[in-house]
Amino acid sequence: MKMRTLLMAGSVVVATLMPALAQADADWKRGRVYYRMVCTQCHTEKAGGAISPSVKTKAEWVAYFQADKHAKGKDSVKYYFSGKFRDSIKATNKAAAKFSDVPEDELAADVKEFLQKGAKDGDAPARCS
Fold it and tell me: How remote is the C-alpha of 61 from its chain's centroid?
């Protein structure tokens, strides 16, 4: 009985930690490069100014990705990590070209990790200019 209870408790702990372990595989440095060279460049050129990771808290960034709404709800956040989007800008954007073969989910996780680290309440609040 005790062994079964321990196994069940262990399973719960592992299931709880799995998302955190998967997140730990994300490369925040690659996320920083993509964010600064793709997201910030576009916001500077088209959207009226760079958007710094530190303008939001970690929870606000999580909510932003979960809502999957960009440009005041006009676009999907996922689109900006898609191969289609990167192909459309890679002739003029070195980061899009460099990361053209990175799977979309992996690149999105990298950027999320960078935003979490650079958030207002993150480990290293970041400003992009």
Answer: 9
| Percentages (nearest 5) of helix, strand, coil residues in the chain | 65, 0, 35
Q: What is the pLDDT of residues 29-88, one digit of tens each?
A: 999 999 999 988 888 777 666 688 988 999 999 999 999 998 777 889 999 999 999 999
**Residue 82 falls inside a structural domain:** yes
Is 42 inside a domain boundary? yes
Into how many domains does the chain fold?
Answer: 1
Q: Are 61 and 112 in contact (CB under 8 A)?
A: yes
Residue at 9 is within a domain: no
Q: Is 34 contained in some domain?
A: yes
Calculate the CA 109 to chain-centre distance: 5
- Output the pTM of the full model: 0.75
* Chain center to CA of 45: 21
Report the chain's terminal Cα–Cα distance, integer Å: 60
The CA distance from 80 to 69, in Å, is: 11
Q: Can you name the residues that pair with 75 across neighbouring β-strands?
A: 70
